[in-house]
Amino acid sequence: MLEFVAPALNIKILLPIIIITVTALTVLLIDVFSPREKKSHLGYIALFGVFCTLISVFKLMPISVSAYNGMFLHDGFSSFISIIVCIITLLTILISINYQKIVSTINCGEYYSLLMFASLGMILMGSSGNLIMVFLAIEIMSIAIYALAGFRKENDKSIESALKYFLLGAFATGFLLYGFALIYGATGTMDIVKIGAVLKANPKIMHTPFLMCGIAMMTVGFGFKIAMVPFHMWTPDVYEGAPTPITAFMATGVKTASIAAMMRVFFIALGPLQPDWTTIMWIIAALTMLVGNIMALTQKNIKRMLAYSSIAHAGYLLIGFVAGTQLAFAGILFYLLGYAFMNLGAFGVIALLGKKEKEYTQINDFAGLGFKYPLLGISMSIFMFSMAGIPPTVGFMGKLYIFTAAIKSGFIWLAIIGVVNSVISLNYYLRVFVVMYFKEADKEISFPTPSPAIVVALLIAASGVLLMGILPSDFWEMAQEATLM
Amino acid sequence: MNQLNFPIISLITFFPVFCSLILMMLDKDRKELLRVTALVFSVIEFMISLPLLAYFNSGTPQMQFVEHVPWVESIGMSYFMGIDGISLWIIMLTTFLTPICILSSWSYIQKYVKEYMVCLLVLETAMLGALVSLDLILFYIFWELMLIPMYMLIGVWGGPRRIYAAVKFFIYTAAGSVFMLLAIIFLFYYNHKINGIYTFNLLELYTLNIPISIQFWLCSAFFLSFAIKVPMFPLHTWLPDAHVEAPTAGSVILAGVLLKMGTYGFLRFAMPLFPYATHQYVPIIATLSVIGIIYGAMVAMVQTDIKKLVAYSSVSHLGYVMLGIFALNMQGIEGGLYQMLNHGISTGALFLIVGMLYERRHTRQISDFGGIAKVMPVFATFFMIATLSSIAVPGTNGFVGEIMILIGAFRSYPVFAVIAVAGAILGAMYMLWMYQRVMFCSLDKPENQNLKDLNMREIITLLPLAALVFIMGFFPGLFLRKMDVSVEHFLDHYNSRYESYVIMQKDLSSQGPETFMKKQIKNSFQKEIKNKGE
To answer: Is ipTM over 0.85?
Structure first.
């Protein structure tokens, strides 16, 4: 007679995940029962759900456990990632509530529900302790986003964007999975912590072609998700075509979650191999920054420009990867949070402009905007200056921390390449500012009166950028505590 | 705490920003109200900066009115501000020039008056902040913050090629300063490695011993950043563009204070932090300064645009300042500091004058004028005073500064001083020639025959500057007295640090590099023990 012992389930730590899943399903359900014209409340329900998730993450923050046979890790790191993801989702929903006036196809339950499933995947990516979990989480996130990218159903570019993202994404996930399989073959375990232990115990495995091949394939898979060179080709097209709030969501959320999963895998599972992959990362980081910034210089469409800029920002984050110290981890986390604010803010401004079925995405469309709508102009300037790394914004503080970490670890040349790149990037961020303030408007830009939701979103983003830039102390300490994996 | 038991520096630094917030709330169509409010605020700002002068203790080289509050403790950033004799007068100059700038733009600026005033006030805060910061990161933040409002001033209210000029200005200065940021971070880590504490505190970093090879690179990064700001030949090309395109007030602030940030940065940061490397750099800097003096003067001579002429004369004058500072003796540095003030006043006045002409005639070509003195006698007087001050005629402020710089330069590098004197002659040539072509000759152009002389507002704008030209020319002691002790201390510090490096260098060559490092570590241990003992 087999004795079956039910495993002790630690339900409590799953609370954020449960809340977000239940809300996502509820939104779907309510959607069915609401009349076609009256669906604007769906966004607010989603908002409420994500807000509750955020609160539960905060409540559970002090707990640090490994649950479900090491599948699910709940620690400071995962909490910090969950907080960033929740903030990103909150802001995206706020932006979407206004955006649905311009693009009416997103005004439905699926949209918000998919958004929340995607963020569920992101939260899981930050908390997974097993390669299988990493894979599942990535799939949950990606599939939702493939669909979301094509949500402007009447628009060819949006469909193209969704298809491109899906095909390439599926391919990249294949690589990722293959890489995982090879790593499993080499080490005999899928558990992230155990892989590290096995590698440490058997240095002989460390340089087998088997494992090397696995790491390379896995890097391709992750590299696709964070848009690092040379796996960045999809970024501009997908970002341009996707609905603007979703572009913002992809640029910030996917990047945050993928970097989080990458950090766990590379530093814990592949920690013993750090000297080997650091060199590769060094080259990739430098290339990513250079390609992103140089390509962005010539863009005329602001969404494409921000797509290249997001590639460049992936490069800055990779500097932290190369540095590979506690300080660098905290720097990466701090930067991710700051990047979420500034990038969502910038896309929020873009999403705000435009009227029925027509968006203003050419940089020249912004001419004269600065003086006509002072608050909009000021907030866009804050976001642009922050991305360019001009004090007193979070962009500056984040770069300061990451470059500091790089210099401390002795990667002075990489830091020099980094600052040279921020000078290059000044050119195109300033161009937005130049057009907004220095050029006269040649045509009328009009947009529907913004709903309070987006005003709140922009306020949160702008104050986040300034607060983290002027008083970074508390955020920095939080990020430092979160890195004690 | 400081002698006033009151955070006066913070008040002075942030009062303009606070005012700009109030301005933002006013109605943008009530232009007169906006102008008056901005003027009143800037005058109040000048008033509250006066106690600095009154309570400044000229007997001590220590930082005064110090405020020191931790800011980001985990990496040793602090809100650390203070003033000494080196920065005191430049701060006064800044608060003094801002109301003048606002007055000068009274009728010139007609569009976006509100935004314009806000920019000027924010710029004032940034400049003051950079001048009083004693924490490297705090300084860097203000340093970068200066760029944005200036960029706006040039880009929005500037001339036809304003966008080109604004972007060039921004990219040049930002490119220089990011390398300084790297050097700051490196310095920070090096200090941690040697002394075991995280700090960006400038005064603590002054005492850090940096190996010569590293010092050279760090010094280069700082020098590059400041040299672009000054601007030194051959990094000066942004300046004529920026000056020509900027509105009058922008030019006045740019020439009056912003350029001084570069020379101030050399004195406050680069030179005392890296004395050995600075010493190695002296011949290069002196050569470039002299080239700047002669080149600036010669290019100024052939300009057809008055404003461009004044802009190139700035390059020449700043060459003098650098020459004086790098003479590294009492007269040279004090002369350099004095010339910084002079240049702010005389070139500021010249830009105002050019602006007034431009407002009347909408041209700045020298050939469009002639015989203006007949129709505008009051204007001619002020123009003459500014011109004489600029070419350093005895009795004006320019003379005092230039003569001190030349004395200092003669003591350190006579050859350069001789060449620099030639620059003074060239200066007289191009200024007087320009004055002659504009103000005298025959009044043959019909457009010029009905020009109105200065109105009351314009006279009030120019009068304080003209008065200062003579006050500073006749009573230089009044100003120099407050600098003396600080400059002396600066030199003592610099020389003693330099000598200790020379001794270390000797040890290094005789004992090999390891002993050098060991010695440093030993020194730092001893320091720590001493600190604990206290």
So the answer is: no
